[in-house]
Amino acid sequence: MKRQDFYYELPEELIAQDPLENRESSRLLVLDKRSGAISHHIFREITDYLNPGDCLVINDTKVIPARLIGEKEGTGAKIEILLLKRRENNIWETLVKPGRKARPGTKVSFGNGLLTGEILEIAEEGNRLVQFTYEGIFEEILDRLGQMPLPPYITHQLKDKSRYQTVYARHSGSAAAPTAGLHFTPELLQTIEDKGINIARVTLHVGLGTFRPVKAEEITEHHMHSEFYQIDESAAEEINRAKEGGHKVVCVGTTSCRTIESAADENGHLEAGSGWTDIFIYPGYRFKMLDSLITNFHLPESTLIMLVSALAGREHVLKAYEEAVRESYRFFSFGDAMLVV
User: Fold this and answer.
1) Is 265 exposed, middle or buried (0-12, 13-18, 19+ CB in 10 A)?
2) Single pTM value for the model
3) Are 54 and 197 in contact (CB under 8 A)?
4) What DSSP assignment string belongs to 188-223?
5) How many Å apart are CA 31 and CA 263, to the nearest integer?
6) How far apart are CA 29 and CA 33, in angstroms?
7) Please, what's the largest Cα pairwise distance for the chain?
8) Per residue in 313-324, pLDDT tens?
């Protein structure tokens, strides 16, 4: 299967640059995965597609302000460090720009010395391992000095950091938001629970590998980076109960989907636990847990559009995307939503 099989034309003006004032007022395209039928709604109408006994699976990861702008000690040259994953204590795997100024031994100062980082070594694909030195609590310093790591296609400045977080974000560790969840408000979640739908919280810390472009012509040659996930006993029980009772398991976002599909056995039973997953879902994959998916509109030729195509069929998905373009839906992180039923 070729990378180009997942390409579609997208006018640049349809890339959403700012979040809507009201999260749940986004548009919602509903796609029937069997027939390919498409209908158009407002996101708050998602409740019409959820029934008592169903289980809504959300990813409660929290984005850290992982983008740090500092100065190289000695020269004052500007260096940008993006935190990807904590390796141990104060050592992080990072993405550094410009890389040519970031050789092992280089020291970078942030916030007039409030935080310093030393590049220890060059890891896979040019990432750097950086050891940070500071006084106090790292998370508090990061909150003062760091910026939200918005995707490169968002060029507007984000005025309110909380708008790149879900309202249910709890466990810090992501370099990017699980954006399908940005459409939910506390009120909408309460309406869903009042209707008798169970909400299961899982955690997957989103790394930038999810969004790295597929460069291999044959998609099976693409390598996914691993991400840390955690599923507690209560979440596993709720999801298994819905599945065993003949109800739907509805994942909010591709990250929730990859979490439960990684932790499920071949018989469709979810195991509680934690670990690292590099699961790559593309057409031909047999879903073990997921029945329906709430997601945003994804970049052409991305692993994310491949995952949606595995669920709904490539032809149905590309047809839906063409319809969304014709109807001027808003695309990508701050854009509108899609429900595959």
Assistant:
1) exposed
2) 0.91
3) yes
4) HHHHHHHTT-EEEEEEE---GGGGSPP--SBGGG--
5) 26
6) 12
7) 64
8) 999 999 999 999
